[in-house]
Design a protein that fits this description.
Elements (H helix, E strand, L loop, with lengths): L1 E6 L4 H10 L8 H10 L3 E7 L2 E10 L4 E8 L8 H13 L2 E5 L5 H12 L3 E2 L4 E3 L9 E8 L5 H15 L4
Parallel strand pairs: 4-5
Antiparallel strand pairs: 1-2, 2-3, 3-4, 5-8, 6-8, 7-8
Protein name: GNAT family N-acetyltransferase
Keywords: Transferase
Organism: Chitinophaga varians
Amino acid sequence: MITLQQVDIPGQAIKELYEEAFPYEERRDWPVVLSLLGSGKLKILQLEKDGEFAGFVCYWPLPDYTFVEYLAIHAAARGGGIGTHIMEELEKRFGNLVLEVEPPLTEQAKRRVVFYERLGYQAFEQPYYQPPYHEGYPPLELRLMQKGSTHDGETFLNIKNQIYRFVYNLS
């Protein structure tokens, strides 16, 4: 059985998977994550499979969407449709989801994009850059994907503006 539970203070297993699953340039420093959780802006769901830690989802409730910033499944829990199950559960809970993904330049990035496309997500054609999390790093080229809204330039700008304003504190 797979469960998703809201956690206010993430445990060591979430921290370790976060640091293992995402390259430094794609993630905030852990104290910043804890501060955002404390502010109530960022939320974390812990995934368990048969009572064992299986991964986590970090998300931001935005005015018109829910931005899934991180989804990580522990290697031991992968397979068997857990990713699909989690995405379907997130859609039930939150409705319109938005994701950032790497451009499909590596095999892993291609698999990730194909996974989301199989679930009905579409990547926007417009260029999108994640502002840097760390001083001295350049913006990171990513792609926005969404499901459940019109897929046009106006929707892209609305999503981008909400993410930049509420997630990255940019106007």
